């Protein structure tokens, strides 16, 4: 009888010991998992709105090659228009966006009452005049229809491109806010057709020529450096695209870090090699 009781006691002790070991192991595993999760979440996550080309491609290069070592995780949200990236940034759905130049941002803030801030210049996409019907600017016929961007700053930019190349003349002081009303000489009697910027590449089938923003030209498979009839000059050009945040967040650690990465020499080299002069790194 004593032998049976002793055997039972030994079995119970062994069972309890086994449970303790199992609980200890489980606790260790849970602790390790929790520690790993905490370590993983230590990276700063930034949700960035961007045009697919070249902005999204540039961000993806940073995401794959530079961000991990800097403790950043980038979530890239692509947009095909120029309005929603600012609307969603203003609403707090995005950490930042990367698709626009400062003159456009200034006009957007003024017209929409938003408070968004341009923080880091990254690159320039020269605006160009394209055509499927002519191969040189002098061949642009009298009465030709030219499609132009319909947003205020890019319309003024398009008209300036035509003026700089002697196609039209603008009144003195028209600047980046120029509209058709500021055209004082139009010897070829060109007809301007304002369209949403994203529609301009498709309009080439229907118009004689179109002034197209660099990102939409690239998305449409055009090569600005070689296919544009005329291309914007880069010297003194105010239309550098850059990183934009809500006002008050310019000094956030993650934004400062991302800004530095976007201006890294490796990013400049990537832009030069990939876009072959159609996109130009900011200096």
TrEMBL record:
UniProt cross-references to SUPFAM superfamilies, sorted A to Z: Periplasmic binding protein-like II
Superkingdom of origin: Bacteria
Short name of any one Pfam family annotated for the protein: Lipoprotein_9
Bilayer topology term: Lipid-anchor
Chief subcellular location: membrane
InterPro entries: Lipoprotein_NlpA
Secretion signal, residue range per the UniProt entry: 1-24
Keywords per UniProt: Lipoprotein, Membrane, Palmitate, Signal
Compartment(s) of residence: Membrane
UniProt family annotation: Belongs to the nlpA lipoprotein family.
Protein name listed in UniProt: Lipoprotein
């Amino acid at each position: 009888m004593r032998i049976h009781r002793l055997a039972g006691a030994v079995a119970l002790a062994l069972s309890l010991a086994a449970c303790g070991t199992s609980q200890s192991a489980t606790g260790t595993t849970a602790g390790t998992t929790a520690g790993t999760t905490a370590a993983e979440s230590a990276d700063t996550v930034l949700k960035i709105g961007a045009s697919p080309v070249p902005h999204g491609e540039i961000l993806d290069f940073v995401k794959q090659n530079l961000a991990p070592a800097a403790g950043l995780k980038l979530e890239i949200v692509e947009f095909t228009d120029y309005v929603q990236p600012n609307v969603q940034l203003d609403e707090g759905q995005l950490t930042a966006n990367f698709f626009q130049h400062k003159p456009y941002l200034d006009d957007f803030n003024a017209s929409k009452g938003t408070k968004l801030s341009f923080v880091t210049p990254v690159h320039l996409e020269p605006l160009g005049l394209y055509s499927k019907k002519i191969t040189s600017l002098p061949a642009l016929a009298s009465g030709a229809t030219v499609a132009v961007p319909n947003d205020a700053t890019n319309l003024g930019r398009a008209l300036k491109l035509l003026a700089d190349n002697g196609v039209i003349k603008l009144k003195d002081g028209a600047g980046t806010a120029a509209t058709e009303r500021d055209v004082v000489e139009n010897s070829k009697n060109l007809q301007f057709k304002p369209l949403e910027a994203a529609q301009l590449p498709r309009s080439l089938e229907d118009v004689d020529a179109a002034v197209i923003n660099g990102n939409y030209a690239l998305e449409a498979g055009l090569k600005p450096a070689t296919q544009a009839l005329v291309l914007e000059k880069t010297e003194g050009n105010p239309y550098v695209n850059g990183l934009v945040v809500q006002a008050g967040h310019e000094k956030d650690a993650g934004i400062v870090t991302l800004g530095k990465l976007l201006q890294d020499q490796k990013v400049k080299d990537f832009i030069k090699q990939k876009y072959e002069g159609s996109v130009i790194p900011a200096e």
